[in-house]
Amino acid sequence: MAKTPKLSNAEKQGLVQSGFSSMVMQGAGGISTSPVWSRVAQAGTDNRILVIVELSGGNDGLNTVIPYADDAYYRARPNLGIRKPAMLALDDHFGFQKTMTGFERLYKDGQMAIVHGVGYDQPSYSHFASMAFWQTGAPNSGEAYGWLGRLADVLDPLGHNANLLINIDDHQSLAVRAMNHVPLVFDDPDKFTRGMVHAEAGAMAAVDTRRENGGGNSTLDFLFDIAASANRSERLVREAWNAYQTPVDYGLVNFGLERVAALIAADFPTRAYYVPYRNNAFDTHVYQGDLHARLWSYTSDHIAAFVRDMDRLGRGDDVVVMVFSEFGRRVAENTSLGTDHGAAGPAFIIGKPVRGGHYGAMPSLTDLDEGNLRFTTDYRRLYATLISGWMGNAQVAQVLKDDFIPLPVFDLAS
Fold first, then answer.
1. Cβ partners under 8 Å of residue 28, min gap 6
2. In a 10 Å sphere around its CB, with 0-12 CB exposed, 13-18 middle and 19+ buried, how is residue 84 labelled?
3. What are the mean pLDDT values of the chain's consecutive 10-residue runs (414 residues total)?
């Protein structure tokens, strides 16, 4: 009898992208194609973990990192401008919202790099387009894969390291879409389970048995492998979540980092997590003042708690968080006491391994591009910093399609 030919990587990828993965699990946007705990022994592989926090909606950077020493800020924002008595001053030039006590502590402890003027050339003011540019790391290109997905493909080209990518969300982000990796995507760990009616239970059990015994058909075996792997992954996620206990208060709005902490505590083999603050929350067109302050109270408390929890777990030296939004807001306030879509804004790199301080040039508040800040730091320099400086991979150009100079946020010699 002729042997059934093995599936090529392209054929396997086609099967996954054709929708089979969405048939396997409910409550998940993606699954692993191999057992959750499998690891690849590679020289130089370490325990460093990267966590990306997305602030959806376009955060107002000027009322986040407040340039209170610049009178142009108050001229542009006579109502929304935050005065020094109502802020947390960081130095003689900048301050945080009064509600950002968690971020203030991280900055003053030297665990936060504030990167000014982050953006890109010919910016889009569309949430959808600009977020896609950030998620792919390739503005105005139509790139099919995310920058974290391409990083995963460089770190593990054959896709053997299962669950290298995890996305905490109710759907898969473009940022984690890869050629050779299928990210694990879930929202509520307790609901991360394979859904079925009672009549289907026997058939699903047979699928698992078929995978364990092998069937001689490489196409079916590959699909059964996906099904069985999904079953293992969702079970281990639930077990990690149910076993996780922490005395750390994650704040009023737990938007996902507590779930990341549970998986890190369970020693998941994940190298990159992607966690959004969802629902376009930072799109503050109307009556921004109180809303923006509350949003930053939730965000600052949650991220600072995660950093404390990593230290409690003994993983503080292993984890770095990067925080971004798809664009900033216009310099001038609008007539609805809010701010409209803009361009450049600040980003943050946070963690014990970070050299705290200010990076990049603060854009001029008077030399504007049709009312918008001109970017001074290409956002792909952030990615280059994380790829080479933190993840220790020299193939920046392969991931980002070009070379970008990293920021000196990490001690690259260590």
1. 184, 185, 186, 192, 230, 234
2. exposed
3. 46 46 38 36 64 98 98 98 97 98 98 98 97 96 96 92 93 97 93 65 61 60 59 88 97 98 96 97 98 98 98 97 98 98 98 98 98 98 97 94 96 55
**Residue written as token pair 């956002």:** 379
Q: Which residues of 281-291 are buried (b: 16+ CB within 10 A; e: fewer)?
A: bbbbeeebbee
Asked whether the beta carbons of 33 and 162 are under 8 A apart, the reply is yes
CB contact set of 368 (below 8 Å; sequence gap of 6+): 331, 374
> What's the rounded Cα separation, in Å, for the pair 147 and 4?
35
Give the span between the Cα atoms of 159 and 163, in whole angstroms.
9
Cα distance between residue 184 and residue 408, in whole Å: 32
The set of long-range contacts for 384-390, using a CB threshold of 8 Å and a minimum separation of 24, is 385/349, 385/409, 385/410, 386/50, 386/320, 386/322, 386/349, 387/151, 388/412, 390/48, 390/50, 390/320, 390/353
Name the 3-class secondary structure at 21: helix
Q: Rounded CA gap, 96 and 84, in Å?
A: 10
**CB of 404 within 8 A of CB of 384?**
yes
- Report d(CA 292, CA 297) in Å as an integer: 9
The span from the CA of 326 to the CA of 19, in Å, is 28
| pTM of the full structure | 0.86
> In the beta sheet, which residues pair with residue 17?
none
Q: Which one, of 359, 353, 346, lies nearest residue 408 by Cα?
A: 359
The residue extents of the domains of the chain are: 9-382
Q: Which amino acid, 180?
A: N
Q: How far apart are CA 300 and CA 365, in angstroms?
A: 25
User: d(Cα 182, Cα 149) in Å, to the nearest integer?
Assistant: 9
Contact 222, 34 (CB under 8 A): no
Whether the CB-CB separation of 54 and 277 falls below 8 Å is answered with: yes
Other beta carbons less than 10 A from residue 270's beta carbon = 21
Q: What is the CATH number of domain 9-382?
A: 3.40.720
